[in-house]
């Protein structure tokens, strides 16, 4: 053990690695320290910048609110309002209407004076009217009127919160406890306030909240309820500690957030911005990733340099070994011959000749397999084409014999024509899925003629733009009629619906029949997985299952389960391409 630590007893590899680490580790430590200092500096700069933005936002809101507060007394002492509120009932209809129009003009000016004013109002109890900028109400909302009187400090805390709305109001007379003659109010636009609030953390995808804990109202730039609950707890703690502004890092829901907050005395509220720390330190995180990549690269370079003299033989041999492993993984890639006419050059050339021969054999085998699959597809499709023919003519004959069924017989003939026109068309092996669904609906219409209202059928879901083998949905529906619904004494239900998956598209055919037990469903699934050829072909399940697998692969096809309706659920799973 002692000899291991004696430098002169080290192997060349250990000496080179020791020297490499002596140079590399201090550089890595210095780089890491610079990265951490940069992270802290960026965090502080962004925090201070966000705090400055918050201060600017609150200052703008306070100035706007203060301007509205200073503007309201001009309307409180308005001669028209005073006269209308004191002698309104004595005025003629024309005089009253004229004063209302004059007041509304000033209310329009007041509303247009600030983008944050949603509506300007004047409540006049003597005439029982609420005057708005564009109309007036025939009565006063007493609850709203009472809320406008709750403002005791109109200049220091002017904001009134009522019924999820924000107001700034002033009554006349101002300094009295008796019932006011009238009240002028400006309803603030919550949407405009939210839009202004969203500007604080928009560049970093943050969430900004204006929160008043005393009256329980808030404005949030987004609709994340979890962040709102975190904000309430955070602001409550800071309020209890008497903190008015600052920034700190908080963790919630497994994530770190940069929390920047400031208190507004005029609004009696806190403005809080929550910015995901990952957004703040995004560039630094990238530098960290590159740092670790650089460390890994340095180690790789050191190993390569240490082994350089020994790999004159090892490297070409490992290339050959790796190439054989690629062949085992069905990756027939030739070796680039970058050597002369030595032994390895001869081996590389022999390997490449072998790979070329294998490629030729595989291509020939693959082409033969494709031809066999196409032949199998044609055979399976032709097996389905004459299906259902005999029953159709039998039903048509029965309808023609009945004098009362002439129209139904005519309609049934049209359905038969559409049905057999579809199944006898050999132009393409694959058709759009929408056309397959249309054909299935035609088949259902034919069965509706036979069974009447005894079987209820419902199609749900969208149809994906996808090409599928012909006759993959209708045989499954036919199977449901034949084995589940046809012999039911009670009302039958057939539900056909679709679902888009990550790896493809599925159709579900469900019924409320009771002919199939759980053991039978299990047996059918096992048979489908084994693709047993001796399974009863009249069900159509094996036929459709095998054709879908030939087209998309072994992981697609048909699977069976118990339906929520009580009967059988058949899932037809297609690939996405």
UniProtKB/TrEMBL annotation:
Subcellular location(s) of the protein: Cell membrane
One of the record's GO cellular component terms: plasma membrane
InterPro entries, A to Z: Bact_2-comp_sensor_kinase, HAMP_dom, HATPase_C_sf, HATPase_dom, Sig_transdc_His_kin_internal
Membrane topology of the entry: Multi-pass membrane protein
Protein name: Histidine kinase
Species: Paenibacillus ferrarius
Domain of life from the UniProt record: Bacteria
This protein's record includes keyword Nucleotide-binding: no
Keywords: Cell membrane, Kinase, Membrane, Phosphoprotein, Transferase, Transmembrane, Transmembrane helix
GO molecular function: phosphorelay sensor kinase activity
Main location: membrane
Residue ranges occupied by any HAMP domain in the UniProt entry: 311-363
Transmembrane segment boundaries: 12-34, 290-310
